[in-house]
Amino acid sequence: MKMKFSKFFSMVVVLSMVVGSVSVFAGGARASSGKTKIGVSMPTQSLQRWNQDGANMKSQLEAAGYQVDLQYANNEVPTQVSQIENMITGGAKVLVIAAIDGFSLTEVLKEAKAKNIPVIAYDRLIMNSDAVNYYASFDNFRVGTFQGTYIETKLNLKTAAGPFNIELVTGDSADNNVNFFFNGALSILKPYIDSGKVKVLSGQTTLAQAATLNWSTEESQKRFENIITSVGYGPSGVKLDAVLCSNDSTANGVTNALVNAGYTRANFPILTGQDCDKPSVKNMNAGIQAMSVFKDTRTLAGKVVEMVNALAKGDAPPVNDTQTYNNGTGIIPSFLCDPIVVEPKDIQAALIDSGYYTLADIQ
Ligand code: GAL
How many angstroms does the Cα of residue 147 sit away from the middle of ligand 1? Predict the structure, then answer.
């Protein structure tokens, strides 16, 4: 980590000395508007959060005086690679990237490194690339522990006799975050699974078995319908106490499957989520999702803009974690924002009073 950070930092310093200015952008051409261009590559518009992330990044960067090239890649890796290539050849001075597949950007980012274009991994760590300079996300392990602890508390696992039946659902295994979400939750739940107090009757307990391609609602619904059928879960069948879901888009698929199987708010299993997407907030209000984890995308965007500004001035960007996120080439200095648990009782304060949603958004 130290080597990587200090290598990059000394590059900043050397550049500053050479051009007699403190800007890492000083060596390159500016956009025709005269403004410094920032490339922002987002994975998809099909999930709500990335639309918010992209919009927040664009407005906050523009307010700070940059020109923004914002692209969405429709969850297609070749599209994301070619969009990043275009950003590099189009004169972007910093790249901010939320990867579709964390392992697929090694080649294209060699070009960024060759041109001394700093790369900030946005929310998802980019793996196996020494071109990545910084990472900004939320504390993803903590997200998982929130979900695991929620189930532990609601089922009273510490003292109740059990056994309880739960199932496990996580996201796309090409997303490095999944390791943190899943392992964070399992750090709480695994002791109970090992002791037999908690049973996973499908037998699907590994990350690979619990994974959901592209975090897709449809995929998670399909898998969960199969689990319901094969185990025989149902309001008048085998009791299902809780479903650990790593995020809202997968939770929505599980909810659909459970509703189709006859569950109502009166007997709904405890279901976790993450993102506070609008459909999930509505489901929480309707009593068919117990909790979600709120990650304010405005805060993350704000932190990344601070990073970009610091790079522009030749300062060291803000980081608060220099131990956790190794992308295969070394530790990437990170800033991890704080996630918070949201239950129905918290919706007003966390999501409405904070201005994140209007009441109409979630009714
Ligand atoms: C993760 C992200 C989550 C969730 C998921 C699906 O990388 O951290 O907030 O949105 O992707 O998009």
Answer: 15
Say which residues have a Cβ less than 8 Å from residue 93's Cβ, sequence separation at least 6. 24, 25, 28, 36, 37, 38, 117
| 189 Cβ below 6 A of ligand 1 | no
Specify the number of domains making up the chain: 2
**What local confidence, expressed as pLDDT, does residue 30 receive?**
54
Residue ranges making up the domain that contains 210: 140-294
The answer to whether residue 361 is domain-embedded is no
Q: What does the pLDDT average to over 114-128?
A: 97
pTM of the model: 0.91
Q: Whose CA is nearest to atom 9 of ligand 1?
A: 275
Taking the C-alpha atoms of residue 185 and residue 142, their distance in angstroms, rounded to an integer, is 8
186 is a domain residue: yes
Phi, psi at residue 295, to the nearest 5°? -125, 105
- Long-range contacts formed by 107-116: CB under 8 A, 24+ apart: 107/81, 108/81, 108/84, 109/84, 111/85, 112/84, 112/88, 115/28, 115/88, 116/11, 116/15, 116/24, 116/27
Measured distance CA(23)–CA(25) in Å, rounded: 5
Residue 120 is encoded by which pair of tokens? 């900030």
CA distance 91 to 85: 10
Q: pLDDT, tens digit, for every residue of 39-65?
A: 999 999 999 999 999 999 999 999 999
359 within a domain of the structure (yes/no) = no
Q: Pick from 46, 50, 123 the residue to mutate for probing ligand 1's pocket: most ligand atoms within 8 Å of its CB.
A: 123
